[in-house]
């Protein structure tokens, strides 16, 4: 098959007739008047944006101050009972606790409460804190302890006192009578912060391009076909715009400095340009991150176990695994390798090799769900963004390919899409109140295409005398993971 | 039998994420995970002898088992090792015993390739030296490479040479460490193999100096022994730097030549005070290079040649060290800075060199 003319990318400012002529869309004979999508039709590209469409995953926030793009949410962590040891106060004491003797230990902080017990890292010894910890000049804390034992020869082995090992606090132990009260630790909620960013897209046209037809038929969303250029051009514009918005929610990097200043300033207006942390940055900076080259079920299972056990309440967790075609293949392979190692050959082969039509056989069935030992079900969703997004496009251009697919296609992101008590999703797309997305038309003498919709009354007067017009989109967005401990980023590393 | 003690830590790299900083009060990053990657796994598995010698103990499986290959691959591809915030200390101590039957075959094989009878491995100390002496040579070669970085004219070339020196150093260390199992037994098999794996895993820098090699680096290896040596070296280098700087303050022309030889070219300020401030800053940023250049007896000529390049009287071909005449590129002054210095020092080129100097003097000062 001969390529009559290549797909061309046009980066000129205006769409006009010249563009159509230049790209040979006006008139050479074609074999078929219908357009062949070389890389398929664009759809299923927007997993996060779909949260804004009836999924309770959209939150609008009003800015507190002019130009303040930050938003916060309250979080509460898990009670901490461990404390790191600095060492034995008396370094010459080689048998701490022997003969029921008192000994002193220095700790990094004052987590331990008086009369409570503390267990050594090797779990072989438990001691009681006899009185409240005393602060030291170097910022550490010292406590007096006695071993809880009936054996006069027992002592705590010295390797438990190596710097930075964690000891854990247990129950308090008091005499049967005359005891005083103890103290208690508490934990206050904290505030997390992120910020939204603003975007703008413009589609300028000039001349009479609105009424120009081309020699190719384009599909319309309503199932009809058209030869007009602008519906097709606008469709590309819209898909590209949405793709960039979606990708920004995943890949964006927070750009406020440690002092809270945004140093990215727009040259033209002198105004700061804010960017928030996207899904990848949030997960990577919180340690919810690992790498893989060839996926094994044990690795996937250990990550899932970590995520499910991080959620201590009984709410059902909606964990969705997003990945591209590469990740889907790796997961399928990991499960099959594990199944084969467990000698499930017959069951697998019965499922995989089936009778087809007319005496032929069909081979191939693939996993898209996994149930953990705790009964949690994880569904794998293929997000075409990982295969067809701009990062995948760049991987292809740079030859970062593995088994025919871009590296990006193998990245796996597990997102906890559960609802909280208020019916809000754990993952939310955040926009500035009143500025989710605004569309406007800058009208000149150029005829407006029908796809731009009916012109509002206020726009009847012209904004420019020139033979041009422009379709303008402005909006704000950020992403928020309320509880990041139940989501995970598993990056492919070849 | 000789037992060596060596500890190395895997520490967290300070990641300068402003998002993490904004949420530092409530950020609970408990662990950073050493994961898997195809290249790291393939490299570690490719040393079959080492895997057999070390991993039998880690996996609790005989390498003769029919499941060996499958289990080994599955282990490494599924690898997840969590490193807490305070880091993880690895015990890299080894036991060297010339009578160890499990190492006999390896030692005999090594001896069969050593011709000189006196060099053959016959004692416990020979086994230690077999590894350590080669590691010392690697460090020597590396130090020489770093010291000779000043021969590169541009910062870009110097950077490339420095990267190549680090790569050669760690490739060699990795190769030598990959043979350590032949002469000794690790005290902690898992710790040693984790260290070996980290040398190939891209998210762990092999030393602190390499933590900025990639934005993906989350962890780095830190040896307290090496760290202390490094601190001592820095302290000595700083003392020498102060002495040399104070010497240059008294000789502004030499100070300017050093700046030119450092490649600061067109950014050198006109004011002497600013020049000295720049020199101070550069001496801190590139201490070793600063010292080598400042101590170089040819610094005057080197600085002059760099100055002529800045003013286009001479020209250096981009991406190379070749220096040519600024107006006639076919006239080569030198393929390296050393050759250019020889050219300038050669009496037979006196007329041309003098012409270059005149052309420089003729450039208006403002």
- Kindly report the greatest chain-chain contact and the residue count on each side: A-B, 43 and 35 residues
Task: Report the principal-axis shape of chain B.
Answer: elongated
For the record, give the distance between the C-alpha atoms at the N and C termini of chain A, rounded to a whole number: 36 Å
* Helical content band of chain B: 40-55%
**How many individual β-strands of chain A?**
26
CA-atom Rg of chain A in angstroms: 31 Å
What class would the helix/strand composition of chain B place it in?
Answer: alpha+beta
Compute the separation of the termini of chain B in Å: 74 Å
**How does the overall form of chain A come out from the CA principal axes?**
extended
Q: For this entry, what is the oligomeric state of its chains?
A: heterodimer
Strand content of chain B: 5-15%
What summary fits the major beta sheet of chain B?
Answer: 4 strands, mixed
* Integer average pLDDT of chain B: 90
Rg of chain B (CA only): 26 Å
User: What is the residue-averaged pLDDT of chain A?
Assistant: 79
Q: Helix share of residues of chain A? A: 10-25%
Helical segment tally of chain A? Answer: 8
Quick take:
The complex is a heterodimer of chains A (494) and B (366). Chain A is of the alpha+beta class and 494 residues long.
Word description of this protein:
The complex is a heterodimer of chains A (494) and B (366). Chain A folds into two domains: 1-75 and 186-494, no CATH class; 82-172, Thrombin, subunit H (Beta Barrel), CATH 2.40.10. Chain A is of the alpha+beta class and 494 residues long. Chain A is built from eight helices and 26 strands. Mean pLDDT of chain A is 79; it is low at 1-6 and 24-43. In chain A, the strands form seven sheets. Chain A has a six-stranded antiparallel β-barrel. Chain A has a six-stranded mixed sheet with strand order 14-26-22-15-19-18. Chain A is 18% helix and 28% strand. Chain A starts with 16 loop residues before the first helix and ends with a strand. Chain B is α+β, with helices and mostly antiparallel strands and 366 residues long. In chain B, 54% of the residues lie in helices and 11% in strands. Chain B contains 15 helices and twelve strands. Chain B has helices at residues 18-22, 38-46, 48-59, 68-77, 101-112, 124-147, 155-177, 189-198, 224-249, 252-261, 272-285, 287-295, 299-310, 337-345, 350-361, and strands at 2-4, 7-12, 31-34, 81-84, 88-91, 94-96, 185-186, 204-205, 219-223, 314-316, 323-325, 332-334. In chain B, the strands form four sheets. Chain B has a four-stranded mixed sheet. In chain B, strand 11 (323-325) and strand 12 (332-334) form a beta hairpin. In chain B, helix 10 (252-261) crosses helix 13 and helix 11 crosses helix 12 (287-295). Chain B is elongated. Classes of the chains: A alpha+beta (494), B alpha+beta (366). The A-B interface holds A 75, 77, 84, 164, 190-194, 253-258, 260, 277, 281-282, 284-287, 289-299, 302-303, 337, 341, 402, 485, 490, 493-494 and B 15, 17-23, 25-33, 35-41, 70, 73-74, 77-80, 86-87, 202-203.
């Amino acid at each position: 098959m001969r390529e009559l003319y290549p797909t061309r990318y046009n980066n000129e400012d205006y769409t006009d007739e010249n563009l159509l002529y230049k790209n040979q869309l006006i008139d050479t004979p074609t074999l078929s008047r219908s357009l062949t999508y070389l890389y398929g039709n664009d759809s299923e590209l927007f997993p996060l944006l779909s949260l804004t469409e009836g999924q309770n995953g959209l939150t609008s926030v009003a800015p507190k101050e002019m130009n303040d793009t930050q938003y916060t949410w309250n979080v509460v962590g898990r009670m901490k009972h461990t404390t790191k040891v600095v060492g034995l106060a008396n370094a010459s004491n080689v048998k701490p606790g022997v003969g029921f003797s008192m000994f002193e230990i220095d700790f990094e902080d004052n987590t331990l409460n008086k009369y409570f017990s503390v267990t050594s890292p090797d779990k072989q010894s438990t001691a009681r804190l006899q009185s409240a910890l005393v602060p030291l000049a170097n910022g550490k804390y010292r406590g007096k302890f006695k071993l809880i034992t009936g054996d006069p020869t027992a002592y705590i082995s010295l390797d438990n006192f190596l710097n930075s090992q964690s000891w854990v606090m247990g129950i308090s132990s008091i005499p049967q009578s005359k005891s005083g009260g103890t103290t208690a630790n508490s934990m206050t909620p904290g505030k997390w912060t992120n910020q939204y960013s603003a975007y703008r897209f413009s589609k300028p046209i000039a001349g009479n391009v609105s009424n120009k037809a081309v020699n190719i038929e384009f599909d319309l969303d309503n199932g009809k076909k058209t030869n007009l250029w602008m519906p097709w051009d606008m469709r590309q514009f819209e898909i590209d715009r949405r793709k960039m918005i979606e990708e920004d929610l995943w890949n964006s990097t927070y750009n406020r400095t440690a002092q809270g200043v945004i140093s990215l300033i727009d040259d033209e207006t002198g105004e700061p340009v804010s960017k928030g942390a996207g899904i990848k940055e949030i997960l990577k900076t919180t340690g919810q991150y690992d790498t893989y080259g060839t996926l094994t079920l044990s690795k996937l299972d250990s990550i899932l176990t970590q995520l499910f056990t991080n959620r201590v309440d009984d709410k059902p967790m909606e964990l969705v695994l997003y990945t591209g075609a590469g990740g889907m293949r790796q997961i399928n392979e990991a499960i099959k390798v594990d199944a084969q190692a467990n000698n499930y050959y017959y069951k697998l082969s019965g499922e995989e090799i089936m009778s087809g039509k007319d005496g032929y056989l069909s081979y191939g069935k693939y996993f898209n769900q996994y149930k953990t030992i705790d009964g949690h079900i994880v569904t794998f969703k293929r997000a075409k963004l990982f295969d067809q997004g701009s990062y995948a496009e760049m991987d292809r251009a740079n030859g970062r390919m593995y088994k025919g697919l871009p590296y990006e296609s193998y990245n796996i992101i597990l997102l906890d899409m559960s609802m909280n008590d208020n019916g809000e999703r754990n993952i939310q797309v955040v926009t500035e109140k009143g500025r989710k997305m605004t569309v406007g038309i800058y009208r000149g003498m150029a005829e407006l295409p029908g796809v731009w919709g009916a012109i509002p009354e206020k726009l009847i007067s012209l904004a420019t005398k020139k033979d041009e017009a422009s379709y303008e989109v402005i909006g704000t967005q950020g992403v928020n993971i309320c509880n990041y401990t139940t989501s995970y980023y598993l990056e492919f590393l070849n | 039998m000789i037992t060596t003690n060596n500890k190395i830590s895997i520490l967290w790299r300070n990641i300068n994420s402003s998002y993490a900083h904004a949420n530092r009060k409530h950020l609970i990053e408990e662990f950073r995970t050493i994961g898997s990657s195809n290249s790291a796994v393939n490299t570690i598995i490719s040393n079959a002898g080492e895997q057999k010698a070390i991993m039998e103990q880690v996996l609790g499986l005989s390498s003769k088992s029919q499941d060996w290959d499958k289990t080994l691959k599955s282990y490494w591809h599924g690898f997840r090792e969590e490193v807490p915030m305070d880091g993880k200390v690895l015990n890299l101590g080894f036991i060297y015993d010339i009578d160890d039957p499990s190492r006999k075959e390896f030692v005999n094989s090594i001896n069969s390739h050593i011709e000189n009878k006196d060099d053959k491995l016959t004692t416990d100390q020979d086994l230690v030296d077999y590894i350590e002496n080669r590691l010392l040579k690697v460090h020597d070669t590396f130090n020489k490479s770093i010291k000779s970085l000043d021969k590169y004219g541009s910062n870009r070339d110097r950077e490339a040479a420095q990267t190549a020196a680090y790569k050669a150093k760690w490739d060699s260390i990795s190769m030598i460490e990959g043979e350590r199992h032949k002469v000794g037994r690790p005290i902690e098999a898992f710790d040693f193999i984790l260290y070996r794996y980290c040398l190939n895993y891209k998210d762990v820098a092999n030393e602190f100096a390499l933590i900025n090699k990639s934005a993906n680096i989350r962890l780095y290896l830190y040896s307290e022994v090496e760290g202390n040596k490094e601190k001592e070296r820095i302290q000595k280098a700083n003392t020498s730097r102060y002495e040399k700087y104070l010497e240059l303050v008294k000789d502004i022309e030499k100070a300017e030549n050093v700046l030119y030889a450092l490649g600061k070219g067109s950014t050198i300020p006109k004011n002497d005070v600013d020049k000295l401030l720049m020199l101070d800053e550069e001496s801190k940023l590139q201490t070793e290079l600063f010292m080598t250049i400042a101590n170089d007896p040819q610094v005057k000529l080197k600085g002059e040649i760099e100055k002529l390049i800045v003013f286009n009287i001479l020209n250096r071909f981009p991406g190379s060290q070749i220096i040519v005449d600024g107006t006639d590129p076919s006239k080569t002054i030198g393929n390296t800075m050393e050759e250019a210095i020889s050219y300038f020092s050669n009496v037979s080129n006196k007329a041309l060199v003098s012409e270059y100097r005149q052309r420089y003097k003729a450039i208006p000062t403002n």
